[in-house]
Structures
1.
Amino acid sequence: MKPITTAAEAEQAIEQLTALIERLTGLVEQETLLMHAGKIRAACALEPAKAELAGQLFAAGEQLKVSGKFLLRTVPARCAALVRVQEIFRAVLQKNMIVLATAHAVSEGIMRRLSSDLARKASPQVYGATGRTAAPNPKHGRPLAVSRTL
């Protein structure tokens, strides 16, 4: 990567990175709202655009890393503004990860419950030595097929 050598290049590079972060922030917020509303298919449709922006963000960030000291000396106010944009992005990402983790936990709970119910129905209903119904035998459990197509 070619280091940044002029103030104009520094301004342009920071502006480009800021724009990428803001676009990705908007996309992540949109994904969060869709997931929160249970619109998983629509949220998954955002993945290619998110991946593209993340790749561009990584490349732009690497270029700025090469010239970090120069940027701080040349355009300190722009660097401070970039830090604020990054903090906002970090907060949006944190909220997004909480929503995604919640959706994952809920779906995992549903799948475990479904698997348990199917195993219980497949097992013979007998009483054990204590006079209570016996727990389902894992040998009677059937594999649970899941379609990954939403």
2.
Amino acid sequence: MSALVSVREPGELRQYFERKRAEGKKPILVVNAVRNKLVHRVCAVIRNNRPYERRPITTT
């Protein structure tokens, strides 16, 4: 559910979702990639024992 919310709300993961969709990827595949990104971030927070630090969104 958090991956679905992440691609609906403005932010880094939505930009990622839209970029991958523009490349022709199927929506469910991109949602699974977003889910994987979220899991990696949670694991990094636990591993490093530090709170999550959100980076500002940059456009390139």
3.
Amino acid sequence: MTVSTRGIPQKGRPVYIIDGSRTPFIKVRGGPGPFKALDLGILAARPLLLRQPFGPDALDELIAGCVSPAPDEVNIARLVALRLGIGQTIPAWTVQRNCASGMQAIDSAWRNVRHGYSDLVLAGGMESMSQAPLLFSEKMVRWFSRLQASRSLSGRLKVLSGFRPGFLVPVIGLLKGLMDPIVGLSMGQTAENLATRFGITREQMDAYAVESHKRLFVARESGFLGEIESSYDSSGNFYEHDDGLRPDSSVEALAKLRPVFDRRFGNITAGNSAQVTDGAAWVLLASETAVEKYGLSPMAEIVDTQWAALDPAEMGLGPVHAVIPMLSRHKLGPDQIDYWELNEAFAAQVLACLSAWKNSQYCSDEFGLSSAFGEVPHERLNVDGGGISLGHPVGASGARIVLHLARVMNRKKAQKGVATICIGGGQGGAMLLKNAAG
């Protein structure tokens, strides 16, 4: 195959990232965390809107990504909008693209602003993975149904006599969500596939994970995480930082951890995988019209986006399949991109993407390229850490990496940046940003 030209955007208005914020990412520790997804969305958005020179009713719409909202959080975007006081007449809608749901929200907002349907949009994502439900088993549900359908005492007694304690064994919703039903593999097992294909060793994975923690620690101590808004729970506890950071992490310590997904032959551990976390992230997108009307100062411009699909058993290579078509149509190579945010679902997955981009055989087989796409320099990738050190709340991560890339580019006065993410189910997403000054 050759690099696809599908999805080339038509000319449209410039779309700017004006501002953004997120909650601290709170690690799941064996039970429900302090915040529901709705709470997280509000906690991240309220201070962001309060500091703007326009009222919340100036927004044209609110778009949010969320993978597993609670049963009472249906169309969670609308609930966030109403709880924030944005106004009953302003539409709000929810999107779901697994790990890239937050990025999908931004993409949807980008398209609406680009083509003139909106001028100001709040877009992002939220996830409370600790609040994922425990479900009844199918046997228990069928037993309940038979009991409810029974009309006579004898019939009910007969159903009751058929009850077995094993019916009460719960189904863990989070684990079901992290399993691909098409290929029958967990996300971690798909990462094991990539490690095997590209010869990535346990030592390489652990070294990458340690570096992620060290980079996040430096970023926190240097004040580079200004997008984080302190969050207070109903008990008065407050959260200021991503609490999964392990600044004392070492390759020696990680080497002691046992593989999780392939206990006999595998190399993917809890230490070299993204942390399961709760969190939310938002960005404000504006047209040139809104920028001039309110005197806004853009952080970056979103130039292009790309979605791609591939074998679900190798879903971690999604960024490779999204980035190559996107940059190819702009005649850009990886050496022309100043900074990269590649979501760290697993160290093996990140390292596999880096290997695939510089592997001429892979680039030839998958994209029809005559040579390798090129190398992404380690010093320009995830410069302030990533999902391994700060966590991966699946509905929020896509928005977080776009927001943080814009902040890194602003800080470094960089011209171009790419945010990209792999997606459970075998997809990939990418966004190209450029300096708003041109």
